[in-house]
Amino acid sequence: MAEAPSKIESMRKWVVEHKLRAVGCLWLTGISSSIAYNWSRPNMKPSVKIIHARLHAQALTLAALVGSACVEYYDNKYGSSGPKVDKYTSQYLAHSHKD
User: Fold this and answer.
1) Cα–Cα distance between 72 and 19 in angstroms, integer?
2) For residue 53, how many other CB atoms are within 10 A of its CB?
3) If pLDDT is split at 50, 70 and 90, which confidence band does 90 have?
């Protein structure tokens, strides 16, 4: 019987399948929250608030792209099943659990 995938595994699978959508959603969330935060500060010009929001969103987008590259690297190296165990290790594990 197959186990249901964990929440982290299902999120990782979604990110692998929708990389650009994940980065775009993170960018939109970042710029929206940065604009909301900057608008609550009264002693700044609106142009400075927009520039700060853009810079924050740009940094968040770069972080999201790096995270997406890490997910892609992990997926290419290990596949969807996690780290691979060679046949000798799996044979050792199978024999070590016998009573």
Assistant:
1) 9
2) 20
3) low
Q: Which one, of 8, 19, 25, lies nearest residue 72 by Cα?
A: 19
Cβ(28)–Cβ(58) below 8 Å:
no
Q: How many helices (H) and strands (E) does the chain have?
A: 4, 0
Q: What is the largest CA-CA distance in the chain?
A: 74
13 and 5 Cβ atoms separated by less than 8 Å: yes
**C-beta of residue 27 within 8 angstroms of C-beta of residue 57:** yes
Helix, strand, or coil here: 48? helix
Amino acid at 8: I
Token representation of residue 9: 């595994």
Give whole-number Cα distances, 78 to 17, 83, 88, in Å.
16, 5, 18
Q: What is the pLDDT of residues 56-72, one digit of tens each?
A: 888 888 888 888 788 77
Looking at residue 23, its pLDDT comes to 79
Query: In what helix (H) or strand (E) does residue 53 lie, and over which residues does it extend?
Result: helix 46-78
